[in-house]
Amino acid sequence: MVAQASDGHVLLAKKLGGLFAIIIGCLLTAVGVTFESTVTMIFGVLFLTLGAALLVLKIIRRNQGPPLT
């Protein structure tokens, strides 16, 4: 039996947003290291952190059990 969340679109947005933020973060961090730009590296790390946080929130939300009554 497949469980369905009432806010499926929100979970999908968090997943795709998290993956997109991680990819952008990796690219910005790599460019910052290559050109020795501290600001670019900081933005890259911030995007990596944001992407990881979105994915963690999505996983936590998915793994929540049914409410106990």
Low-confidence stretches: none
> What integer value in Å does the Rg equal?
16 Å
- What sort of overall outline do the alpha carbons produce when their principal axes are compared? elongated
Distance N to C terminus = 22 Å
Beta-strand percentage range: under 5%
Order of helices and strands: HH
Total DSSP E strands: 0
- Number of helical segments with 4 or more residues: 2
Would you give an account of this structure?
The protein is mainly α and 69 residues long. The protein is 75% helix and 0% strand. The protein has two helices and no strands. The protein has helices at 8-34, 38-62. Helix 1 runs antiparallel to helix 2 (38-62). The longest helix is centred in the first third of the chain and has 27 residues, at 8-34. The protein is elongated, with a radius of gyration of 16 Å. The relative contact order is 0.18.
Which key phrases capture this entry?
69 residues, mainly alpha, 2 helices, 75% helix, elongated
Summary, kept brief:
The chain is built from two helices and no strands. It is mainly alpha-helical and 69 residues long.
Topology:
Blueprint: H1 8-34, H2 38-62
